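With this grant's support, the team has encoded backbone shapes as discrete tokens. A representative record is reproduced below.
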Amino acid sequence: VGGRLGEELGGIAPILLGFCDPTAADAEMADGDGGYRSSDDEDEDGGAGGRGGMDELRESCFAGFESFILHCPEEIKPYLPQIIASILAFIKYDPNYSYDDDDADDGAATDDPDEDDEDGFSDDGFEDDDDDDTSFLVRRGALRALSALVRCGPPSLDELWDTYGVGSALLSRFKEREDNVRVDAILCFEALLKRTVEAEVDEDDTMTDDAGPAGRLDGALPAAVKRATKCLADKRAGERTHSAALLVLRTAAGAHKSDEWVGGALPPVVGVLRSGAKAVKLDAVGLCRVLLEKGGDGVAAHLDTLLPLLCDAVGEDWYKIIAEALRALSAVPALAVTSRVSDPVAAAAALHLAITPRLEAKDIDQEIKECALQAAGELLCALHGQLAPASRDGLLRLLLDRLRNEITRLRALQTLGRVAAAEPKVDMGAVLGEYSLEAAALLRQQSQNLRLVSLEVLDVLVRCHGEGIEAAVIGKILKECGAVMVDSDLHISHLALRVAISTLVLQSLPTEVPNAMQSNILPKALALSGSPLLQGATLTSLLFFFQSYVSVNSSAFHQLLPLLRDCFPVGAGASISKVVVSNIAKCIAAIAAATAPEARNTFVLEQIKAVQRSDNHVGIECQLALLTLGELGQLVDLFLISPNIQGTIMACLDSRNEENKGAAAYALGRAAAGNVGVSLPVILAALQVEDGHHYLILTSLKEMLSSEKVCQSYASDQLGTVLTPLFKFAAVDEEGIRTMCAECLGALACLGSDGNDVLVFMKEQMELHSGKHEAEDIRICWTIANAMKFIITSGKVLDKVAEVMPSFLGLLTEQNLNLRAAALQMVYAAVHHSPVIISSLMKTLVLPTLYELVEFKSIRTVDLGPFKHKIDDGLPLRKTALSIFATALENCPSSLDIPDFMLKLAFALGDVEDIQLQAHQIVCSMCGRHSAAIVPAVASFVAPLKKTVEKQVKDNAADGDRTKEWVKSGLRATLALSRVEGIMECPSFASFFEAVKINVNLINTISQLKEERT
């Protein structure tokens, strides 16, 4: 069905519904006398051909409904009640056969499995009586339409289960006599059950409503399991029916309620495992795997029955059954530990006997090798205590062999990591050294993934089994780790440092290890500390390494201090990256915090003297000393060492060097975190000084409030002392000070449990000043919007933010453009970082404003003398609004009205260059995520895209490269659209795309884009 046909459903759907009238189905069923009608009887009543033709017509009608549901979900909504009524009537349309009247009992489970007649499984239930009967076409077509509705259609679970009764209707069709139709009915019910199980997983744990997904599962699972079990037990049913029934049971097992029904369902499953066809046996093994993974006492009680059969399945010939059986066996050890298993020793022995031959074999499928490694790893992790020592050591040796094999070494390495981290610990003494050497040797490989896993495994080996590794082996490990520590691969360096840290914290550190550490790791660590690329987890690990190194070696502080200072040339301060200075200051502070108190106190006094003796607080030495004092102040109380340290740092705020000013502000705030009671009054007093360093003091306050130490020890009675003097800067004229005030407000709101007080205060101030046109009111609201953005970005107190968010969204309607821009940035932060707090408010409070701003323009002309320049003040608003749409499409698409957005996207495609580039990216993203919404709107995209891709590029023009990228972006969007199913049914786009493909100016660019995609 093309996208354009959806507009005509108002005329088409009633005609099709007329041929599928539910009352006609009931009447024809009644005319059938409840029994079989021969073809001769049909000829006398008007001919079998007439009825057969009607059946084929109805099948086509239901095929049309299926297509409408899949491709025109919005347009078909008004007709869904009638369509569903027709479907439910015709899925049981069988005028030539009489089923037992058991519909009233379809939704309830009984305890007697032999009550076949009650559920419609009579002796002739699966017999096909008449080869000329075509009514199965109608039932099959109706079921396929219903399957599309269940999988992709608009109805909610409430409507499907309760309003329309789809679940009970499908359960009643498990007795269908036609095998292919019966399979469709079972699979359709499985899709409904799977959707319900997934909804239960996503459901809030606090919901206990019986009408919710959990309540529906409680009501539906007994009957579903009973009917699927009967289908599985019936030997006259085909393999496809058995597979479909097993799929229902497998989905039911995912509902965490298997203990209630597993006992009744297992007998036919066991029968399939013993003598079933290969395809059905594979499904049965898959069901057992899910049951074992979910665990529970009900499954554990039948483990004695299942385990031998699964072990036998490992000996099958088909690789798929072998692999699935090994996956099932992988779940047994954990079940044996957590549930009541009668004989875990026997279970461990059986698992060992089944897994070992597959682990030893070398000429088998790769999937089997990987599954055998997984099963062996789980066995060693959970049941190594129940294995005989010889069996345990044999498995460890086999893992070592697989580790030395190029094909299996990655999976073997991952298995080794799990075994090494197991609790209680596995005795790996026999092969521990060999494992360590093999993992260390793999660090020389080129494969990035292999090196990452090797380092993770080495970290686990050293941390959990380091006491048993020989000193010479540890030395080789450190040598290999040092070789991979480079600033061009920070993640590898981070993991290598973790291995070194795990070595340093060993309780009995061999004497040879410090020498290996000093020669292999320390030089690389010092090189990293002076790298401008150092950041994130690698920086954190480096600081922890230095702290650990000094902790185990009391003289290391005096050794490392000059080495760290020599990581950059002191005399070339202007050419040194601020990142390098900051990182080295962090490293020096880390070793100072870890050294003895006497050495630390002496060092602090030396740093204070370095600050005081610098010429007007200028120079890299002063900057490094200030940053070091700030970093160290977070870790220890510097006021105990030098009570006047705060005054010394504040004197540097008058420095002629801007970088040293910033360092002093940072140091003042971070050092204040060490003793808030002493330092906070001084900082607040400095804020009261007229014409003071307000921006720098606010920076210090923000650093103090953002410190983890303050977050842990913040007292609520300090809130009023900070909030009142701070908020007076929300209305100042200087934007930089207002921005820093907003960050301080955000940091204050994120402290402890008092964030709600700050949020309520900001809400009251916003309501007091919003809607006014005075400059001071606008600036206050602007500051509050930026503070909210900071709070949302931090990810803290989000539950309290959600309570007041509707009030702050009112800022979107303000007239001042700067204020609206700040409000848009707040919304963008919410959509990007925490969509849950705004998704429910989007359609009512956000989208109307966004629709307006996407087309908003405010152009003014600036007279520059010789010429005039036009400035569009609405451009930043349009860019931010479009960014919100793009992010919402990824993070919370359900909060958008996508068809309405298509109109705005078409406008954006014809806007200025910057907006077009954003719109092109959105089109490419939607082609993969929301292609159904793109198809009806593609005609409106053609004109702006055509204008973009046909833009002439002048090679000599100054902006030639920029124009080429512009055209390339438009072509990328065009190619993405061309790959969407149904797009080419739009004549205007089809002709446009054909013209693009033969345009000689675009052929090379199209080829480049296709290569990019591949």
Observations:
- The first strand starts at residue 859 and ends at 863.
- Strands lie at 859-863, 868-872.
